[in-house]
Amino acid sequence: MLISFSGLDCSGKSTQINLLKEYLQKKGYEVEEVWSRGGYTPGIEKLKNLLRGGKGKAPEEQTAEERQAKVAAEPRGGKLLLWVSILDLISYWGCTFKKKSRGKKVLICDRYYWDSYIDFKLKYPKVRFEKWIVWKWMTARYMKPDVSFVLTVTPEESMRRSDLKFEPFPEPQEKREERLHRYLEEIKNGRWQHEIDCMREIEPIQDEIRRIVDENL
């Protein structure tokens, strides 16, 4: 089973994923969490480290701050890297994810297809990558989630939570506003099965998520 969580930074994804993991593990499920963002998959990170002539941590071994630093430091441009990143997702989101979610195992994805789509749109605004054959191929091959959530908060609340966490490389509020606008557009297009209002307390949000997951187990 594959469950995906999408949304702005500090929308509550990590908190809700950790609570859901504990809940499912108590029910006897093997659960694995994967941080999944196009351009920062293990294969692409290895390629970047090879090109830099050094070694680095895989995305799943990095802290949230380290991952955010990499995102913030990524150069604006490079169609070739974008093309290779999409090509890598065919294997990662297709073959690897299918292997990870076999049997009574639940794979929980922190960010997924539409988060990467929005990332690429913001990072390469003049590139129509969605028209590329490699993107269409990836879209046809990637493992579709059994349950998909998008967690929503206001840019101001996202920024406030970021300040409370003392994140070293926070995304500016204006960029969060632009990102939220993209998410709202895709919500209108029905890209996720469930929109979760995360301007509420943690417990009722988790109750709602558990109910939806239980219905799909």
- N-C termini distance: 8 Å
Mean pLDDT: 87
Provide a count of the helices.
Answer: 9
Could you name the ranges where pLDDT drops below 50 across 5 or more consecutive residues?
Answer: 71-77
Tell me the Rg in angstroms: 17 Å
Overall body shape: globular
Beta-strand residue fraction? 5-15%
Order of helices and strands: EHEHHHEHHEHHEH
Return the structural class: alpha/beta
Oligomeric assembly: single chain
Count of distinct strands: 5
Q: Can you list the strand order of the major beta sheet? A: 2-3-1-4-5
* Largest beta-sheet details: 5 strands, parallel
Task: Give me a quick take on this structure.
The chain has helices at residues 13-26, 42-52, 64-73, 79-100, 113-123, 133-141, 155-164, 173-188, 202-216, and strands at 2-7, 30-35, 105-110, 147-152, 194-197. The protein has 217 residues and is an alpha/beta fold.
Write the layout of secondary structure elements.
Layout (H helix, E strand, L loop, with lengths): L1 E6 L5 H14 L3 E6 L6 H11 L11 H10 L5 H22 L4 E6 L2 H11 L9 H9 L5 E6 L2 H10 L8 H16 L5 E4 L4 H15 L1
Parallel strand pairs: 1-3, 1-4, 2-3, 4-5
Structure characterization notes:
Helices cover 54% and strands 13% of the residues. With 217 residues, it is of the alpha/beta class. It has a five-stranded parallel sheet with strand order 2-3-1-4-5. α4 (79-100) runs parallel beside α6 (133-141) and α7 packs across α8. The radius of gyration is 17 Å and the shape is globular. The chain starts with a strand and ends with a helix. Mean pLDDT is 87; it is low at 71-77.
